[in-house]
Design goal:
Largest sheet: 7 strands, antiparallel
CATH superfamily: Mog1/PsbP, alpha/beta/alpha sandwich
Radius of gyration: 16 Å
Structural class: alpha+beta
Strand content: 35-45%
Strand order of the largest sheet: 3-4-5-9-8-7-6
Number of strands: 10
Helix content: 10-25%
CATH topology: Protein Transport Mog1p, Chain A
Number of domains: 1
């Protein structure tokens, strides 16, 4: 019984990360803990859509782009004005190994949270969309997923599985 409790405790500390990538042809530059959410759309080449279930009224979309140079904070700030209202507040954020900007707003009957993040030459454009008002649980989980981002080139393991250090949870 003691070994089972130790195993459960170890499993709680060591989060196994589902690996997602920028391109089906390239090595995966980041990993993220899905906290039980599923990938529901595999048709997009450079984007991954996660949701609590296939019939959920919300989704988290992670778009990934590779640059030949390091992505600057100024570039991210300019990108944050593409296809989003210009009057929303953009906050400086750090999400796991990535940093950049985040904003939230409501458009028609949809709540949006958006992140423009970078680590080295990897740029992530992430959106959470939900019917209004969003479920507190879904919004919290989406934010936890984004905060679990790991840049794999900094912590890659032989199995392609990344452990998030305890202090990041």
């Amino acid at each position: 019984m003691k070994q089972i409790r130790q195993f459960k405790h170890a499993a709680a500390i060591l989060l196994i990360i589902v690996t997602l990538g920028c391109s089906r042809r390239q090595a995966t530059p980041f990993a993220v803990c899905t906290y039980g959410w599923q990938q529901i759309d595999t048709s997009k080449r450079n984007a991954y859509v996660l949701a609590p279930s296939a019939v959920a009224d919300c989704a988290l979309t992670i778009g990934c782009f590779q640059s030949t140079n390091v992505v600057s904070r100024d570039q991210l700030y300019r990108l944050s004005f593409v296809a989003t209202p210009s009057n929303i507040t953009r906050d400086v954020v750090s999400c796991g190994d990535f940093s950049g900007y985040a904003a939230s707003y409501t458009n028609d009957d949809t709540h949006w949270e958006a992140w423009w993040l970078a680590c080295s030459n990897t740029h992530l454009y992430i959106t959470f969309s939900s019917t209004c008002p969003p479920s507190t649980n879904d919004l919290t989980t989406a934010r936890r997923i984004v905060n679990s981002l790991v840049w794999k080139r900094s912590q890659q393991t032989s199995a392609g599985v990344v452990a998030i250090p305890e202090e990041r949870k």
